[in-house]
């Protein structure tokens, strides 16, 4: 009897263990299946995007609601065919006359950011699928709220083209990818053309250039450690600012001592700066002033000389300004018209193109 009782007890225990094991196995299988399903679903609907810092960000396969809080990058989005995806912009973008003429919808968009500050509550109400910005602080704030965020930024030609590629990847469309490739090809063509024509030029033949940031304050000048410094060097000229800086302060005496052959004033208020400089008695004998070479930098959907897709046109404009004899065949009006037609789908009149080259906004 005892043997039968022991056997029965062992059989019961075995059944219990087997049952528990089967139950646990079923639970584990269900959990693993759920995890795999979630992962598969996520992989089916999202993708990884690598931003300018090398950070991987998981975003929807095709973004239809994009917040872009870097005014310059709004231009890239438009260029890549993503204008209809924008759901947030910046106040700075709304103040760019040519951008608002070509893409008037930008004036109706909310602006949840100012400087490096991001209003996350407002951004959440806008409900974007992702954020593009140049601000690390904004990226961190958005990610903390579960909003995918990628950083774009550039201070040289290579990073500019990379930021265009990142923006195209963010949009996730074939059109964006094709336009990005077309743009990079055009930029590289212009870089090569300028380099081929100006290669081997001795230093003494390179004009000295001073680039003023904006007409509102003619004491702020761009140094060589900037995109401005890069295109000055690329177009066969010398930046009179020798210290390795982005922006620095200059006095009238500094300008006299530097004796630039050209003074270029950037921004939408460039005419104010030109007037101040040419009417300053202290600068009367500066070569640029004496020779009538105090000029406004072209301004299109963004400022050509600073952060702009139209940097590709800036190369041609500056090269022809400094070395007209080597670029007689370059028709800047036609190049500008072709660029706007190709990349913005907008047909500029001859007058429009000339106004952009002259640093002026659209005609009233």
Automatic annotation (TrEMBL):
Gene3D superfamilies: 1.20.58.2180, Nitrogenase molybdenum iron protein domain
Keyword match Ribonucleoprotein: no
UniProt keyword list: Signal
Stretches assigned to the Fe/B12 periplasmic-binding domain: 65-326
Keyword match Translocase: no
Stored InterPro entries: ABC_Transporter_SBP, ABC_transptr_periplasmic_BD
Database matches in SUPFAM superfamilies: Helical backbone' metal receptor
Record's signal peptide: 1-22
Entry's family note: Belongs to the bacterial solute-binding protein 8 family.
Name of the protein in its database record: ABC transporter substrate-binding protein
